[in-house]
Every structure is written in structure tokens, then in C-alpha cells.
Design goal:
Blueprint: H1 3-11, H2 15-36, H3 40-56, H4 67-86, H5 114-122, H6 126-137, H7 142-149, H8 153-175
Length: 179
């Protein structure tokens, strides 16, 4: 089945089309879920919840833009909803309240693979990881992040800055001696 047939089949409630759509996108969407939550079981729950939303709201897909992008947005929003309910940003601070951290030397990023970097991102505290994913990977602005997470723009900027600094320290600690 091509993508249009999958979409039409899912709109009609065809179980074969739903299964095919799940098999087509589940690995990619699991990666999205794992970027936002650190444990496999929660990510699996988010994956199932996301696909329920995809099948429930498939009629709202208008055909404008990529279907995968539409699905990804559902999964990101599901993860954000979970994180808001879990209150992962409760320890967030405004930029004005954070101490200025000195810039460290350049990191050995040329020596690290994408998979290794994603593992390090996964190891960040949930609040840092969420902001980092939304800004650096998903491409949201700090204004959009603040609206989605109900935080201030300065908190979003602060969390992103602190996430980058922590990532840089982790990269330097693990891979700095390779240089």
C-alpha cells in the first residue's frame, strides 16, 4: 500500500491499513518518544497513545505537508503533554536566576557519532532534554516552547543553555581524551 492508500484505509477503520501504518512509522516514532522520556516502558506507552491519537484524528490530516510530519507533531505533542503532567520542569529556573557559567573549550564533537550524541541527550535531566529536543532537534523557537510548556521564554533559554553546557561537559568527559 502506498501512503495515500494507508491514509484512506485508516480513515475507513481498516485494521490492515492501521497495522501497515503502525509498522511503517513505529520505529521512527519510538525514537521521537525516547528523545523525550528516558525509560523504555514510558516511551512504549507514549507510542501506543500516539498511534491511538493518529487513528482517532486521521480525518484532520488535510494532505498539506508531509504525513510523517503530521504524525511526528502528534507524537511530540503527546510527549509534551505527558511531561507537563509529570511536571518535569518544576526545577526550572529563569535565566536571570542562573549563575553565569564560563564557556568551556571546544568539544570533540567531530569524534562522536550521532547515536552516541543521542545517548548523551537521553541522559540529560528531563527538563533539559525536553527543551533541547524542542529547540535543537524539532526546531521550535523559545517563544513556541514557552507557549507549549507554559513556562517563560527566559526559562526555555536557560534550560537550553544549561542543557548544552551539560552535554558539552559529558562529551568532554567521555571523549575528550581521544583528541
Amino acid at each position: 500500500m502506498d501512503e495515500l492508500q494507508l491514509i484512506e484505509g485508516c480513515r475507513k477503520g481498516d485494521r490492515r491499513a492501521q497495522k501497515a501504518l503502525y509498522e511503517t512509522f513505529s520505529r521512527k516514532m519510538m525514537s521521537v518518544c525516547l528523545r523525550y522520556v528516558s525509560d523504555w516502558e514510558t516511551a512504549r506507552d507514549l507510542l501506543q497513545e500516539g498511534f491511538v491519537k493518529v487513528f482517532t484524528h486521521i480525518d484532520s490530516y488535510t494532505g498539506n505537508g508531509s504525513f510523517e510530519g503530521w504524525i511526528r507533531k502528534i507524537f511530540v505533542n503527546s510527549a509534551l503533554e505527558y511531561l507537563r503532567h509529570a511536571d518535569v520542569l518544576r526545577e526550572s529556573t529563569d535565566l536571570d536566576q542562573t549563575a553565569e557559567v564560563a564557556q568551556t573549550d571546544s568539544s570533540p564533537l567531530s569524534d562522536i557519532s550521532a547515536a552516541e550524541l543521542m545517548q548523551l541527550v537521553q541522559s540529560l535531566p528531563a527538563g533539559f532534554r525536553t527543551i533541547f529536543n524542542l529547540f535543537a532537534i524539532e526546531g521550535y523557537s523559545h517563544k513556541e516552547i514557552s507557549e507549549r510548556l507554559h513556562i517563560t521564554e527566559s526559562t526555555s533559554r536557560s534550560q537550553y543553555t544549561r542543557a548544552k553546557q551539560l552535554l558539552q561537559r559529558k562529551v568532554n568527559a567521555l571523549y575528550g581524551e581521544r583528541r
